[in-house]
């Protein structure tokens, strides 16, 4: 008898899991409490997969042999708790997909820099002529890539929510970039619980695998004392020389594992100190994979920045407009402000996730000449930065925000959209917010 696979959530990961489940001989049922996008509905119908939308029918869910849950469904939700009580296994789409491929997996997690680092590694491996797919939290779902399983390598961006529900997921190279407060509302407001979920990326690794981690991140190094991993540990640091790792030495970055590779940091395509750190992680992974040194150097030089992440849009009237819409938390915005070399008009705001803006104050004093708030409720931002800049204004639309920022800017200045908040008060998602920013800049 066919095993029944129930998928909760009909977004990118859910539909990918449904397609893979069907291919692997499961009886698949997909359930989404919301309305499905047209493209996903069509995919399910074309593949003869049973589904429901705008409801969850208990009788069709609780007879499952295995449940795959969307990363967006909180693990504390009543439905998930009931499944656990009934001892029905619940896993993530990342876990499920990993069971059906023998390809080598390079998995990237962290609070910030995941998309950039994943894209950079994919770029290096592609330039090296390797047969490589990219997915997870970026682009296509891992499960959909595995349906045809035509790749020898997968580079995956993975969130803490995806890692919460892994059981045997085992990357060949696991990369942990940083751990800073984010999504704490889902982890009882305890940083250590959030950090532990990030560390699940390495828990199934063996001594033949590699765990690449940021030695400069205190949360990581402290937890490494408690959490046992069998993997070969390869640290990278901007502050300390490392014998078996990667470190910065003046203008150079030295990759010291498994053999020596010297890189000129001033030639890196990505801007900002935090991106030197991300580039170190990517170069370390590439060196472990024994990619030719010249290919690594060339790839780091000609990489194009990820859309919505410190993306230079246009220069108008001598003012550079920069789209960093993907900065949905304070730490990401910290990195963005830190990388600014021109007087900056900062567009900030959106749905607050329990943000503490205090760490941004020194950078605002040093780099920011005006603040444009963009959100339905800007009270926390107004209170945090009151008196620190000459001009601060509230706006409720992207058009007003961009026009106000242009008014405050002058030749040689920069306008930076780096919201430090989620986008859901005024926009569909951070991509929509970034696209609207670019459109309004072009309309100036």
Automatic annotation (TrEMBL):
Single GO MF descriptor: UDP-N-acetylmuramoylalanine-D-glutamate ligase activity
Q: Which GO terms describe its cellular component?
A: cytoplasm
Q: Name one Pfam family in it.
A: Mur_ligase_C
Principal localization reads cytoplasm
Q: Which residues form the Mur ligase central domain?
A: 108-286
Catalysed transformations (reactions): UDP-N-acetyl-alpha-D-muramoyl-L-alanine + D-glutamate + ATP = UDP-N-acetyl-alpha-D-muramoyl-L-alanyl-D-glutamate + ADP + phosphate + H(+)
**Residues given in the record as ATP binding sites:** 110-116
Question: Is the Ligase keyword given for this protein?
Answer: yes
Q: Please give the pathway this protein is involved in.
A: Cell wall biogenesis; peptidoglycan biosynthesis
Its BP terms in the Gene Ontology are: cell division; cell wall organization; peptidoglycan biosynthetic process; regulation of cell shape
Q: Where in the cell is it found?
A: Cytoplasm
Name the UniProt key words of this record, in alphabetical order: ATP-binding, Cell cycle, Cell division, Cell shape, Cell wall biogenesis/degradation, Cytoplasm, Ligase, Nucleotide-binding, Peptidoglycan synthesis
- Using the record's annotation, list all stretches that form the Mur ligase C-terminal domain: 308-421
User: Is ATP-binding among this UniProt entry's keywords?
Assistant: yes
Q: Which family does it belong to?
A: Belongs to the MurCDEF family.
Entry protein name: UDP-N-acetylmuramoylalanine--D-glutamate ligase
């Amino acid at each position: 008898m066919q095993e029944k696979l129930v998928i909760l959530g009909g977004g990118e990961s859910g539909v990918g899991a449904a397609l893979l489940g069907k291919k692997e001989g499961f009886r698949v049922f997909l359930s989404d409490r919301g309305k499905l996008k047209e493209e996903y509905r069509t995919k399910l119908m074309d593949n003869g997969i049973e589904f429901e939308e705008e409801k969850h029918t208990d009788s069709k869910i609780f007879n499952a042999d295995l449940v795959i849950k969307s990363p967006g469904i909180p693990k504390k939700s009543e439905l998930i708790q009931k499944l656990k009580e009934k001892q029905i296994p619940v896993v993530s789409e990342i876990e499920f997909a990993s069971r059906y491929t023998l390809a080598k997996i390079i998995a990237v997690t962290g609070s910030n820099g995941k998309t950039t680092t994943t894209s950079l590694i994919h770029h290096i491996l592609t330039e090296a002529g390797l047969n490589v797919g990219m997915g997870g939290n970026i682009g296509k779902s891992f499960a959909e890539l595995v349906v045809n399983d035509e790749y020898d390598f997968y580079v995956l961006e993975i969130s803490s929510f995806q890692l919460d529900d892994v059981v045997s997921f085992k990357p060949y190279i696991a990369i942990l970039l940083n751990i800073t407060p984010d999504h704490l509302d889902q982890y009882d407001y305890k940083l250590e619980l959030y950090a532990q979920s990030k560390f699940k990326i390495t828990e199934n690794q063996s001594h033949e695998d590699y765990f690449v981690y940021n030695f400069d991140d205190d949360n990581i190094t402290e937890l490494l004392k408690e959490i046992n991993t069998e993997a070969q540990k390869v640290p990278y640091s901007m502050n300390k020389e490392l014998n078996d790792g990667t470190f910065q030495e003046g203008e150079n970055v030295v990759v010291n594992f498994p053999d020596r590779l010297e890189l000129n940091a001033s030639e890196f395509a990505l801007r900002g100190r935090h991106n030197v750190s991300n580039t170190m992680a990517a170069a370390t992974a590439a060196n472990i994979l024994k990619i030719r040194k010249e290919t690594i150097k060339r790839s780091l030089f000609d990489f194009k920045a990820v859309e919505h992440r410190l993306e230079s849009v246009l220069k108008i009237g001598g003012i550079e407009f920069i789209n960093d819409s993907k900065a949905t938390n304070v730490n990401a915005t910290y990195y963005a402000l830190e990388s600014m070399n021109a007087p900056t008009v900062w567009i900030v705001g959106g749905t607050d996730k329990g943000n503490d803006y205090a760490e941004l104050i020194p950078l605002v004093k040093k780099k920011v000449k005006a603040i444009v708030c963009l959100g339905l409720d800007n009270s926390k931002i107004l209170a945090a930065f009151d008196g620190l800049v000459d001009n601060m204004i509230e706006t409720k639309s992207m058009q007003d925000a961009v026009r106000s920022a242009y008014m405050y800017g002058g030749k040689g200045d920069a306008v930076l959209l780096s919201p430090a908040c989620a986008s859901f008060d005024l926009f569909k998602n951070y991509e929509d917010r970034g696209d609207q920013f670019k459109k309004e800049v072009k309309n100036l």
